[in-house]
């Protein structure tokens, strides 16, 4: 089923309203949809390289707006559904401790999930659930999602179709390595 959903998403790239389809996929992917917008962005940019950065901007805006939906799901569903269930199981203290750990990390989980292949929807929902400040969430989401989508757009714009294989197979790993090095650098500066 996931493969047919992926194929359907990919088929939208050649649709006359592909930008609207991209916005729809990017919006939903940030809260509930399992296929990342990159699956639609890549063929769109290869077909229309001059629109690469417009395509990245649409994906960014829609993804951040979809992230706000994920944030709302986490904020609203936890209060109404999650907390009473956890209270009946005696787990409220454990969740309070988790919330504090997540809050201590501040913007890092949102930044990492927004840049890497980690499902962004998980972090959008958790951000609302744990009460991450909305301004921090929005700013970090903009930076992370723009960083990811404009990187893909830039690579395709400057290198064309030959870079597609690298993006689809190795960009996620390269981004994870970059984030690990970035965090490692901050830790080294802080503790050395």
Automatic annotation (TrEMBL):
Residues annotated as transmembrane: 20-40, 52-78, 134-159, 171-189
Protein keywords: Membrane, Transmembrane, Transmembrane helix
InterPro entries linked: DedA_domain, VTT_dom
Cross-referenced Pfam families: VTT_dom
Residue ranges of domain VTT in the record: 36-157
Name of the protein described by the UniProt record: DedA family protein
Organism: Pararhodobacter zhoushanensis
């Amino acid at each position: 089923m996931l493969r047919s959903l992926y194929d359907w998403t990919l088929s939208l790239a050649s649709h006359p309203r592909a930008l609207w389809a991209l916005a729809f996929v990017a919006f939903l992917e940030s809260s509930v949809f399992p296929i990342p917008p990159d699956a639609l962005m890549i063929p769109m940019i290869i077909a229309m390289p001059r629109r690469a950065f417009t395509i990245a901007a649409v994906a960014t805006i829609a993804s951040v707006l979809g992230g706000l939906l994920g944030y709302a799901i986490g904020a609203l569903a936890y209060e109404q559904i999650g907390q009473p269930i956890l209270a009946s199981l005696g787990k409220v203290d454990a969740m309070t401790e988790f919330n504090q750990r997540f809050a201590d990390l501040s913007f890092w989980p949102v930044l990492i999930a927004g840049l890497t292949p980690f499902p962004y929807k998980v972090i959008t929902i958790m951000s609302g659930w744990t009460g991450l400040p909305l301004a921090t969430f929005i700013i970090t989401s903009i930076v992370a999602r723009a960083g990811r989508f404009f990187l893909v757009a830039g690579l395709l714009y400057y290198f064309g179709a030959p870079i597609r294989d690298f993006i689809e197979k190795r960009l996620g790993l390269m981004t994870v390595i970059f984030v690990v090095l970035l965090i490692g650098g901050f830790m080294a500066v802080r503790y050395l």
